[in-house]
Amino acid sequence: MIVTYGVVFTFGALIGSFLNVCIHRIPRNLSIVTPSSRCPSCGTAIRPYDNIPVISFLLLGGKCRSCKTGIPFRYPLVEALNAVLYVAALWRYGLGWHLLFLFAFSSAMVVITFIDLDFQIIPDVITLPGIPIGLIAGSLLLPDPFARDALLGFRDGAIGLLSGGALFYLIAVLSRGGMGGGDIKMMAMVGAFLGWKSVLLTTFAGSLLGSVVGLFLMIVKGKGRKTKVPFGPFLAIGALLSLFFGQELLALYLRR
């Protein structure tokens, strides 16, 4: 298992390197396939030995080999974070084909988080394909985060899809634009992948985290109540908490 965890961690870091490309290019409507990875400052193509996740950043001292411009710390952070999420999925759910879909879901949450932080958008290119993929995968092999050794099933996935989309559509209507269409589609995807219970936990956890951060910004940073704070990252954290600790959090709540 040590070897397996090492392979999964390495695979997650490699995919994390690709996620950095997605985070940079998707909101700018650029191809994620071509050209190859380049320095954002000087445009020099990054050599393969300078593109090793995390390690290359450390060896280069966080700077581009060609122009010596600093490389944002976000790059190794995304690589390491994605690797840790892949290992967590293996630890929580064990080996199986379901892992590929859990990997994809976790990576989608990472990309959504960092794009929403920078651009205040949640791209349809991630959420719209994710809805049917999550529903189909959930019907066949995805585990239920709230029931050990049980599959999610089509019914829970379908209810999750509808409840996630409908709940956030209602919030968008009542808030008169305070909630965007990207959040609606994101929660429909979360529901399709993880079921309706995860929609409730994700909404609660995301709202709680968002409120805490909002109060912090108001008190410490002097931000006003009308300052826009992207909600996608908080929903992503809530969804990942649901994925990895849904059963434990439910048990903790029921013991209150």
Q: Structural class, judged by helices and strands?
A: mainly alpha
Order of helices and strands: HHHHHHHHH
Q: What is the average per-residue confidence, as pLDDT, rounded to a whole number?
A: 90
Give the biggest beta sheet.
Answer: none
What is the strand content?
under 5%
Number of strands: 0
Walkthrough of the structure:
The protein has helices at 2-25, 55-59, 74-93, 98-119, 124-140, 153-174, 181-194, 196-219, 232-254. By secondary structure, it is mostly helical. The protein has two domains: 1-95, no CATH class; 101-256. Helix 6 packs parallel to helix 8. The two termini are 36 Å apart. The relative contact order is 0.10. The model has no long low-confidence stretch (mean pLDDT 90).
Briefly characterize the structure.
With 256 residues, this protein is mainly alpha-helical. Helix content is 67%, strand content 0%.
Can you lay out the helices and strands and say which pair or pack?
Blueprint: H1 2-25, H2 55-59, H3 74-93, H4 98-119, H5 124-140, H6 153-174, H7 181-194, H8 196-219, H9 232-254
Helix pairs in contact: 1-3, 1-4, 3-4, 4-5, 4-9, 5-6, 5-7, 6-7, 6-8, 7-8, 7-9, 8-9
Question: Keyphrases for this structure?
Answer:
256 residues, mainly alpha, 2 domains, 9 helices, globular
